[in-house]
Each structure stands twice: as structure tokens, then as C-alpha cells.
Write a sequence for this structure.
């Protein structure tokens, strides 16, 4: 037995070493490919759209300000200033958008730094004085020259329904939102229109859609539940049949605003349960903190919570945990491709999302229509701009806020908190749920054996529907 145990340890160690070595080679090559694709897309964008599109690998400030927003840096933090006719709004963006360490990026940054020494960088410094209790507090903002250009009239000129980029899908399904004059999310609602006992809001995860819930859980709820609760499943901003604005940075504020504008306000939701999966758990927590008196229960599936060590920056730590730059497991390799490489991930979207009708046809042909097509809908129907910014600004960018959200749920909300996690989840490990429980001791955790990130729902929808109904009954009682 001892010999077998030692042999197993040696095999595990050997596997790790091989994984590390192969991953280093593969991702070094991918770093170079992404670097070259940067210039390829700049040229293609210029010839097709007559516009030289900036990207985050060259200058994070350029791509942000070119979207009609102003980047403001203060005390080491980056925020977005949005000017409208009525107010000035601040949005936080993730530094992982423009800070993703790699061998190629380090060499490129050193070269750019040396070149910048040869010329004077034109900046405009605006000093703001605040009077507080007889004293003054000075704060300096460094804004690049594009501020002046935008204030001269370049802001606010975006089309209400901008034309899809050449690399995005232009089919009627993906762009169904352009046929409506309302800037709201796609919402699938079921249940009584009047006299509903309570409401339930379902929030899907990354690269998914409302079909993740409507094709699995909705048909399996009991008649009692369907007559007692109004069920709302949404396509998040940038996904499925919801709007996919080309000028959006898909920040937390934008996502929450759209949920409020599409569900809470028009349907006059006053008392509701939340069911969220993966990335949706972050939005669920933020929503619960904003509406503490409204939330009756909070059900989280595979919440991505990685407490960062005090010595590390939370956003960068989160990026390395969900996208570890390893070829194995495959789901981690896919996450790394999506998170680290702006141009490779755009290429993948170009090949898959823009041509999703062909892929869906081939999938149905090969599998003789046995494949779960609703999963393909969520995977295909988004834009690179939406996926890229949502991944960084929500999953990575909110890493430093999650502790605050969890503490607020613990201290300010009395709702029941239940967490489900697949034992075999290789993307978000089970430890994440236990980390949440350390912040919210009353949270109940249910680990499902032999289930992963997707099969936590898909394949056990009947059992999960019964579990949800029990949670709602107990919370209402």
C-alpha cells in the first residue's frame, strides 16, 4: 500500500511538472500570436470600418476614451467619467483590462517607455478644491488630450442602435433588440401576472443566457410554484437577445441598471428571491446589497469567490485564479484564452459567434439533434466586446468588493442564503463556496457529487427545481 501511495504521488508530481512545462511553451506562443493579431486587426478595422480602433494591449486609456467616456486616475485607482445631459456618473473599471503580465507585454512596455522618454507627454491637470470644515482638500486628476476633443462635441454621438462591427454576428436573433425602441434586457417571464405571492429573478453565468434556466427549471416547477411565483429569467447585457451596445464597457453599474430597468421597475418587484450561477452570483450579491429589504432568499451556484492575500492585488489575484494560464484542465485553458488574450479571444468570437448558424447546423447534423441546443445559444450569442469587458469588469474588477458585499449580506440582510456547488467543478473549485460561508456563517452549502460547473443544473433540473421550491417556501414562512 505504501509503495502504491508513493507511486501515485510521483505520477501526480510528474503530471504537474509536464503541465507546467507545456503550459509555459504554449502560452509563450499565444503571447506572441496575440501581439501580432493586434496589428492585424488594426489594419483590418481600418480598411473595413475606416477607423483605427485602439486596444488595451497598446493603451488602455485610448480604448476607454474612444468609447465616449473619460478616464480619470486618482490615488492609483481608475474610474470612468460619463457625461450626460443631467449628471456626471462614475464607473469603476478593472486594471486587468490593460495589465496582464506576459513576456511579450513586458518587452513591449519597456520599448514604449523608452520611446516616450524622447517626447513630452501632453497632459492637462485639473485641480479640485473641496472645502470641508474650514479646511481645503486638494485632489489632482490627470486627463489626456482626448478630454478636450470630447467636450467639443464628440460625446453623445453614439447611435441608439449602433451597427454591429464587421467581426460580430448580424443575424436577426443576435440583433433582435435593435427592433425595439426600448433599451431593456430580454426577459422571459412566467407565472401569474397579478396576485403573485413573490417574484424570483434568475441570473445566468458568463457566456450563457436565460435559456440556461427556462429550458431546464421552468418546465419542471410544480403547478403550485407556477401559480404562486412570477419567474423572471434575463439575458444579461451583451448576451443572448439582450442589447449589445458597441460603446459599452459593461461595468457593474451598467449591468445593475439594466436589471433594474428591465425587471424591478417595470414589473414593480417588491419582494423577490434570487437564483444566480457563477458570474451571476456577483451581480446577485450587489443587487441584494442594494435592495436589502426586498430579497427573501439568495441561492448561489458556484460563486467565484477567491479571497486575496493581503500582499496581493485582488483583481490580479482573481484573474490568475480563474485563468491560471495552464493547458489542463481544458476548462481552465479556455478561461485563460478568454481572459488573457484580447485579440485571440476576438478571433474565436469571429470564428464561432459570427458563424454560429453554421456551427448549430453542424452540431445538429452530427448529433442528429440530440445535443442540448439551448447551451449553444448561450455560448454563441454574444459579442467579443461584451464578453471581454464583462469578464474583466465584473469577475476580476469586483474582486476587491466581494468581501464588502458578503459582509453586508451577513449583517444587513435576514434572508436565507443557500449555496450549491458541483464536486467536480474544475473552473470554480468547491473551496470558493466554503470561503463564502466563512463570511456568511448562516449560509447552507450543498455539494453535489459527480457534478461540475454546468451539470450542477443541467441533468438534475427536476431535483434542483424541488430544492428551490423548498427554499422559497421556507423563506416565505
Amino acid at each position: 500500500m505504501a509503495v502504491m501511495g508513493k507511486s501515485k504521488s510521483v505520477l501526480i508530481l510528474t503530471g504537474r511538472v509536464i503541465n507546467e512545462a507545456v503550459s509555459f511553451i504554449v502560452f509563450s506562443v499565444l503571447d506572441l500570436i496575440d501581439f501580432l493579431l493586434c496589428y492585424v486587426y488594426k489594419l483590418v478595422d481600418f480598411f473595413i470600418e475606416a477607423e483605427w480602433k485602439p486596444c488595451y494591449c497598446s493603451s488602455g486609456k485610448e480604448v476607454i476614451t474612444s468609447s465616449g467616456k473619460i478616464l480619470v486616475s486618482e490615488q492609483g485607482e481608475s474610474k470612468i467619467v460619463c457625461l450626460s445631459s443631467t449628471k456626471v456618473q462614475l464607473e469603476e473599471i478593472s486594471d486587468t483590462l490593460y495589465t496582464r503580465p506576459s513576456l511579450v507585454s513586458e518587452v513591449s512596455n519597456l520599448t514604449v517607455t523608452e520611446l516616450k522618454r524622447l517626447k513630452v507627454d501632453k497632459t492637462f491637470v485639473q485641480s479640485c478644491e473641496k472645502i470641508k470644515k474650514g479646511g481645503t482638500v486638494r485632489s489632482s486628476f490627470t486627463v489626456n488630450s482626448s478630454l478636450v476633443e470630447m467636450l467639443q462635441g464628440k460625446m453623445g454621438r453614439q447611435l441608439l442602435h449602433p451597427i454591429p462591427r464587421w467581426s460580430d454576428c448580424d443575424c436577426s436573433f443576435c440583433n433582435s433588440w435593435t427592433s425595439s425602441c426600448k433599451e431593456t434586457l430580454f426577459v422571459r417571464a412566467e407565472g401569474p401576472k397579478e396576485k403573485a405571492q413573490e417574484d424570483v429573478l434568475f441570473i445566468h453565468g458568463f457566456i450563457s443566457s436565460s435559456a440556461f434556466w427556462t429550458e431546464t427549471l421552468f418546465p419542471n416547477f410544480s403547478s403550485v410554484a407556477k401559480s404562486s411565483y412570477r419567474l423572471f429569467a434575463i439575458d444579461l447585457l451583451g448576451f443572448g437577445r439582450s442589447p449589445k451596445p458597441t460603446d459599452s464597457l459593461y461595468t457593474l453599474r451598467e449591468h445593475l441598471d439594466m436589471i433594474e430597468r428591465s425587471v424591478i421597475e417595470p414589473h414593480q418587484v417588491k419582494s423577490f428571491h434570487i437564483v444566480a450561477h457563477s458570474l451571476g452570483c456577483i451581480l446577485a450579491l450587489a443587487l441584494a446589497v442594494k435592495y436589502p429589504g426586498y430579497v427573501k432568499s439568495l441561492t448561489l451556484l458556484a460563486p467565484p469567490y477567491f479571497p486575496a492575500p493581503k500582499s496581493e492585488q485582488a483583481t490580479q489575484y482573481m484573474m490568475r485564479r480563474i485563468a491560471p494560464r495552464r493547458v489542463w484542465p481544458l476548462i481552465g485553458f479556455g478561461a485563460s484564452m478568454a481572459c488573457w488574450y484580447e485579440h485571440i479571444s476576438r478571433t474565436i468570437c469571429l470564428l464561432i459567434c459570427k458563424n454560429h448558424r453554421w456551427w448549430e447546423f453542424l452540431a445538429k447534423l452530427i448529433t442528429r439533434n440530440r445535443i442540448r441546443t439551448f447551451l449553444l445559444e448561450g455560448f454563441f450569442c454574444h459579442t467579443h466586446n461584451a464578453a471581454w469587458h464583462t469578464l474583466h469588469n465584473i469577475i476580476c474588477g469586483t474582486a476587491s468588493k466581494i468581501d464588502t458585499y458578503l459582509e453586508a449580506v451577513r449583517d444587513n440582510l435576514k434572508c436565507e442564503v443557500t449555496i450549491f456547488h458541483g464536486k467536480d467543478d474544475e473552473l470554480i473549485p468547491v473551496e470558493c463556496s466554503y470561503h463564502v460561508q466563512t463570511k456568511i456563517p448562516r449560509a447552507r452549502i450543498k455539494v453535489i457529487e459527480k457534478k461540475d460547473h454546468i451539470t450542477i443544473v443541467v441533468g438534475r433540473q427536476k431535483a434542483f427545481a424541488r430544492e428551490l421550491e423548498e427554499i422559497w417556501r421556507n423563506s416565505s414562512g
Summary: The radius of gyration is 24 Å. The mean pLDDT is 82.
